[in-house]
Design a protein that fits this description.
The complex is a heterotrimer of chains A (200), B (662) and C (118). Chain A contains 6 helices and no strands. Chain A is mainly alpha-helical and 200 residues long. The chains are: A mainly alpha (200), B mainly alpha (662), C mainly alpha (118). Chains in contact: A-B, A-C, B-C.
Chain lengths: 200, 662, 118
């Protein structure tokens, strides 16, 4: 791509934040608005109708805290994976990425279990405004996690093909890491604003 | 086009001259570079100039489509109690007119300018992510198809070939009929048919295209400027592109969510806007206008950027107060996020909210006014040449100002209580959109088309174009101010005689057809230029910015050698400025110019959206297996993106002869 | 994903990876801190304290977790200011919009007669 060939010329006069990194941060800034409006829909309806549904009848704070912890740990492993790639240690990178994928899958499994439990208890997409906002919001987050897992799986297999040059791919891994961490911090907000708030 | 260039293979055999052959990508497939087929070349191009031309051509096409929809509206309203079209068809006309003009005409036409000009104005060879740029174009096409294929379904329905079943049974609207703003729950599944689904999905897809393109341009402008092209030396048009792109990436998510919530309500039984379950219709209005207001600044800022280039060029003076103009643009962009509820003054928000939004709306007039004073300051004392672009830019300043005045009248909530939902609003936004955006975009076409195609304009038809369009604009929309104040509401397919509206409506319709005639003359002028124009040369207007240093039409690699910039208005300083302000060039390193490879995958990925859009809509209409078609579309999208990532960027090198531009 | 002509960006050579190793330790500490904070949150909601106090502490802890992940795991503190500004702009606009919407939407405007579900 044109940026790469001229990078050696442009170093001394451009801002030079790597193109892909800047692109991902722009995307994350945009995604803030995306999740912001989605979460605000939920919060608005909770403010308007606290009586519409009592989530404490179905919420299991232990399960959700566990899945939050799992996601935080996956973020930690992702940071280690990025760090390993910067140092050129592909094997360490692979181990950490497998960890991230594994923890991510556990998180998704907890979500699926939780959703199934809620539906079994009668809380569905159509249950007043609460069911609608809750499932669409956490479902959207879940889809983001799933896309991240798919991306990391692809990256894991790509690392075995031998085409992954540690210097050039460090940026790609870092960009995937940024996406993963963002998905984590969105969950931090959802955990507080959607689950913990209901217990006070 | 490349007769004076020798092209070399890249990658492994570095610097070994070769007859040009396409390479295999990392996937082992042939890259579509150097194709002999014109169609393949244009379908797989990643060249920002070709992409810009395609955006422009499509935008002009949809401008005509939207214009015809407007003429049908005006024809229906020519006399009271007219029966030209039914009420439902009328609703479809104003819905599609608005949606088409905003999303398929003005925005893509702005995009055409972004694409063609920004890399040239900053001295770059292409955008930061060329394949992503192509993806934006074809995704735009997919969205346009989803929206307009609805017409085919409506025609099929009229002929009795298609009757929707499922949740849409009994509904007769295949074309969107809910207004361009789609107020939920009026367009819930109980009240509208698949027209709304086409609208929701079409807009979602168009949103993806805009988001991707904007992120691309921000990275390009920040990262890929030529040496010495500091931010405050960039042309104002590039600045406006940057600000508009930020507006897009922060505003579109709001409508994405609103549309998604509406889609879930219609198709999956959620209650976001279902009143009996607690849904609040006002929430739709908030979410839509959180997007909708920044959207109108997205429509006008590029136009302001164009005018800020043209006025200095034809006054032979630099833009008056460059820094302030740039800063005002940024302030308009930022404040644009804080004023959305001025579209909702009559919804009963409460005193505090209404007052707050009213004040902020008045505040946003200040930077806009500052820009107008600066444009006038540019003209003052200059040696003004009344060329075609200049005439339209001057028209912009005047007509946009008129639209701004009626806008300020709206900002006062008590006054707006009378004006809201009346023809007064229609007058306001058509003055700012036609008198503003469209006049400026036409000015831009007159200014830059010689650069794009290398042909100069023929004769003085442009004077007639300007005259007829401005007359048409004013005859159509000026009476609407009065029509609104004496009580004619918007979006009514007919009206009774005896209210005092008849004459006004008749005048407006005559004006509309006049305006249409002016546009027709404009299209004829474009045709004459492209077919019979004299060669334009590099710099036919004696202009000020870097793009005029390239050849006309521009070579595929833009600049033979990377320019080193030393001043604002770089080309002007180079031509007439001091010795130390001239443009110099980087030394070549012998590798040649790196060009990005072309690719099929952005096109393939975008095509998935068509399946998603039509599949989801047909699913709502009860057609069997359509949900799977939508999922298939998502898989095509995903697979297209994955293969796009895996094929690698590739690239090849060109070595232009030394006598290329200097 | 890899371009043969890619010239790596001129970061200061970190061949002994001391910088990365320092960050490794930061990451471990941060992960421990985040786990601890999550545990505190879990306990806090069950304590019989004033609800406004608990809400404030929860929000403060969330803000801490948010900023910590962004600054350290996502490297913002080590990167150019531009990235912080870009993300910050999106965050600021989103936060402003959420707050404005929460303020504007009020129970007093709801027509409860129209709602049949509850």
């Amino acid at each position: 791509m044109s940026d790469t060939a001229s990078a050696s010329h442009d170093e001394h006069h451009n801002l030079i934040v790597d193109n892909k990194k800047l692109l991902m941060w722009l995307f994350l800034g945009s995604d803030c608005m995306f999740f912001g409006t989605l979460i605000s829909t939920h919060l608005i309806y909770r403010k308007l109708y606290p009586e519409a549904y009592d989530p404490l009848t179905v919420f299991s704070l232990e399960l959700t805290s566990f899945s939050t912890f799992i996601l935080l740990m996956s973020s930690f492993l992702m940071a280690l994976a990025v760090s390993a790639m910067h140092k050129g240690q592909i094997k360490s990178f692979r181990r950490n990425v497998i960890g991230v994928i594994f923890f991510g899958l556990i998180f998704l499994a907890c979500q699926v279990y939780e959703f199934a439990h809620f539906v079994h208890e009668g809380l569905t997409l159509s249950t007043t405004t609460f069911g609608s906002t809750f499932f669409v919001m956490t479902g959207t987050h879940g889809v983001h996690v799933a896309i991240g897992i798919f991306w990391l799986i692809c990256m894991y297999f790509y690392s075995h093909t031998g085409k992954m040059d540690v210097h050039e791919s460090a940026v790609d891994v870092e960009v995937a890491g940024l996406y993963w961490h963002f998905v984590d911090i969105v969950w931090i907000i959802i955990f507080t604003a959607v689950y913990l708030i209901e217990y006070i | 086009m490349s007769s004076t260039i020798t092209e070399t293979h890249t990658t492994i055999e570095h610097g070994q001259p070769h007859v040009l052959k396409p390479e295999r990508s990392n996937l082992g497939l042939m890259r579509p570079d150097h194709s002999k087929s014109v169609i393949v070349d244009w379908l797989t191009t990643v060249d920002h100039k070709k992409i810009g031309i395609m955006y422009g051509a499509l935008a002009l096409f949809f401008f005509i489509v939207g214009g015809i929809e407007a003429l049908i509206i005006r024809a229906q309203l020519f006399v009271p109690e007219n029966t030209l079209i039914s009420a439902q068809t009328y609703n479809q006309m104003f819905t599609m007119h608005g949606t088409t003009m905003i999303f398929l005409a003005v925005m893509p036409l702005s995009s055409a300018f972004f694409n063609f000009l920004v890399p040239l104005q900053i001295g770059a060879r292409d955008v930061a992510f060329p394949r992503l740029n192509t993806f934006s174009l074809w995704t735009f096409v997919a969205g346009a198809i989803i929206l307009n294929v609805s017409w085919l379904f409506q025609a099929a329905h009229a002929l009795g070939w298609f009757t929707p079943g499922g949740s849409a049974a009994g509904m007769t609207d295949m074309v969107p009929a809910g207004g361009w703003f789609g107020y939920a729950p009026l367009n819930a599944a109980e009240f509208t048919g698949i027209g709304t689904d086409f609208w929701v999905l079409g807009l979602q897809v168009l949103g993806v295209a805009s988001l991707a393109a904007s992120m691309n341009f921000i990275v390009t402008i920040i990262n890929m400027r030529a040496p010495g092209m500091k931010m405050m030396r960039m042309p104002v048009f590039t600045w406006m592109t940057l600000i508009t792109s930020f507006l897009i990436i922060f505003a579109f998510p709001a409508i994405t969510i609103a549309l998604a919530e509406l889609m879930f309500d219609r198709n999956f039984g959620t209650n976001f806007f279902r009143v009996s379950e607690g849904g609040q219709p006002i929430l739709w209005q908030h979410l839509f206008w959180v997007f909708g207001h920044p959207e109108v600044y997205i429509l006008i800022l590029p136009a302001m950027g164009i005018v800020s280039e043209i006025l200095p060029a034809f006054s032979k003076k630099p833009l008056f107060g460059y820094s302030i103009v740039v800063f005002s643009g940024a302030v308009i962009g930022f404040l644009g996020f804080a004023v959305w509820s001025h579209h909702m003054f009559t919804t009963g928000l409460g005193k505090v909210a209404t007052a707050a939004f009213s004040l902020l709306t008045m505040a946003i007039a200040v930077p806009t006014g500052v820009k107008i004073f600066n444009w006038i300051g540019t003209l003052w004392g200059g040696r003004v040449r009344f060329t075609a672009p200049m005439i339209f830019s001057l028209g912009f300043v005047w007509m946009f100002m008129m639209g701004g005045f009626s806008g300020i009248m709206h900002s006062s909530a008590p006054a707006d209580a009378q004006q809201q939902d009346s023809y007064f609003v229609i007058a306001h936004f058509h003055y700012v959109l036609i008198g503003g955006s469209v006049l400026a975009l036409i000015a831009g076409i007159y200014f830059w088309l010689p650069k794009v195609f290398g042909k100069m304009w023929v004769g003085k038809l442009n004077n007639w174009v300007a005259l007829v369009i401005v007359i048409g604009l004013n005859v159509t929309f000026f009476p609407m101010h009065f029509l609104g104040l004496i009580g004619m509401p918007r979006r009514t397919h007919t009206y009774l005689s005896g209210f005092g509206w008849d004459t006004y409506n008749m005048i407006c319709t005559i004006g509309a057809f006049t305006l249409a005639f002016g546009i027709l003359l404009f299209l004829i002028d474009i045709y004459r230029c492209v077919k019979k124009g004299e060669p334009a040369g590099n710099d036919p207007w004696d202009a000020r910015t870097l793009e005029w240093q390239t050849s006309s039409p521009v070579k595929v690699y833009n600049f033979a050698k990377t320019p080193i910039i030393t001043a604002r208005d770089a080309l002007w300083e180079h031509k007439y400025g001091a010795e130390n302000r001239k443009i110099t060039y980087e030394k070549e390193d012998g590798h040649g110019i790196h060009m990005p490879s072309q690719s099929w995958f952005p096109l393939i990925a975008s095509s998935g959206f068509i399946f998603v859009g039509i599949g989801m809509t047909m699913r709502h209409a009860g057609v069997a297996y359509m949900g799977y078609v939508a999922i298939f579309g998502l898989l095509v999208l995903g697979l297209g993106i994955a293969l796009w990532a895996l094929e690698g960027p590739g690239g090849y090198h060109l070595h232009p002869k030394e006598d290329a531009e200097s | 994903m890899s371009d043969p002509d890619y010239a790596p960006l001129p970061v200061s050579p970190d061949t002994d990876h001391s910088e990365e190793n320092e960050r490794y330790h930061t990451f471990v500490n941060l992960a421990l801190a985040l786990s601890a904070v999550t545990g505190i949150e879990l306990v806090l909601v069950y304590l019989p304290l004033n609800s406004i106090f608990i809400t404030t502490v929860l929000i403060a802890l969330s803000v801490f977790k948010f900023i910590a992940v962004i600054a350290w795991f996502m490297h913002l503190i080590y990167d150019k200011l531009l990235l912080t500004l870009v993300f910050g702009a999106g965050l600021a606009i989103a936060t402003g919009t959420v707050i404005a919407l929460m303020l504007v939407m009020s129970r007093s405007y709801v027509d409860f007669d129209a709602i049949t579900a509850f």
